[in-house]
Amino acid sequence: MLKLALLDLRNSIAAWRLWTLLGWLEVRQRYARSRVGPFWLTISMGVMIASIGIVYGTLFGMHMSDYLPFLASSLVMWNAFSQMVQEGSVAYINSGTYIRQASTPKLIYQMQVIWRNLVVLAHNFVIILILLAIFGVKDWAALALFVPALAVYLLNALWIGMLAGLLSARFRDLPQIISALIQVAFYVTPIIYRPTSLNRFSFIVEWNPLAYMIELVRGPLIGQAPSALTWGVTVGMLVIGWPLALFMTGRYLKRIPYWV
C-alpha cells in the first residue's frame, strides 16, 4: 500500500509544472477583469485585522504595537491552514471530471490546493510585512526560524488534506462536517487571544494540536522562538500523520475514480 502511495507522490512531485500552473490559473480566474486582482484578498484580510484588532485590543487592554502583529500573524496563517484543509477535502470531488478521463497521479490535486493557497498566503503576508515595518522586528534570530516552521506547517496541512479529501470522496457529508469543525477550532485555538488568557481552562490550549501549529509559525514573526514542545508536537504530527495518510491513499487510490 505504501509503495503505491509513494509512487503516486513521486509522480505528483515530478508533475510540478502541471499543478503549479493549474493553481495559478485558478487564482487568476477568480479575479479576472479586476484591476486589483488577488490583492482584494489582502484588502479584505487587512480590514478584518484592523477591525478585530481595534475592538479586541481595546477589550483586552493590549498595546496595539504588540497585539496587531500577533493578530495579523495568527489570522493570516490560520486562514491559509483552514482553506487548505477545507479545499483539500473537496479536491478529488471538484476534479472528478479530470480524474475519470485522464490517468494522472491523484495527489497532484492536493498539491494544487496547497500551491493555490500558498499564492494567496503570499498576498496576505504583505500585511504582516507592513506591520513588521511599522512596529519593527522583535528578534531577527527568531524570525529566521519562520522558514523551517512554515515547511512543517504546510506538510501538516498537506497530509490532513490528503486524508480529508480521500474520506470526503467516499462520504459526501464529510466536507460540511469538516467546515463546521474548522469553525469550532477557530474559537478554541488561541488566534484572537493569547494562550495565557485561558487561566482556568488552559487545558484547551495544552491539548489542542492546532494551537501548537499556529504557535510554530506565529512565534518567529512576533519575536518568539518556538519552544521544544511546540517543535516536538508539530514534527510528531508529521511522523504520525504522513504514514497514515500514505497508507490510506495507497489502499484506496484506485477507488477514487469510482467515488467521484
Mean pLDDT over all positions: 89
Q: Which geometry do the CA atoms define?
A: globular
State the end-to-end CA separation: 21 Å
Range of strand content: under 5%
Largest sheet: none
Whole-number radius of gyration?
A: 19 Å
Q: What is the helix content?
A: over 70%
Overall number of domains: 1
Give the strand tally: 0
Unreliable spans: none
In sequence order, what are the helices and strands, one letter per element? HHHHHHHHHHHHHH
Can you describe this structure?
This protein is mainly alpha-helical and 260 residues long. It has one domain (2-26, 37-259). It is built from 14 helices and no strands. It has helices spanning 2-14, 16-30, 39-60, 64-89, 91-94, 96-101, 108-135, 140-143, 146-170, 174-188, 203-206, 209-221, 228-252, 256-259. The model has no long low-confidence stretch (mean pLDDT 89).
Spell out the blueprint of helices and strands.
Blueprint: H1 2-14, H2 16-30, H3 39-60, H4 64-89, H5 91-94, H6 96-101, H7 108-135, H8 140-143, H9 146-170, H10 174-188, H11 203-206, H12 209-221, H13 228-252, H14 256-259
Helix pairs in contact: 1-13, 2-7, 3-4, 3-7, 4-7, 4-9, 4-10, 4-12, 9-12, 9-13, 12-13
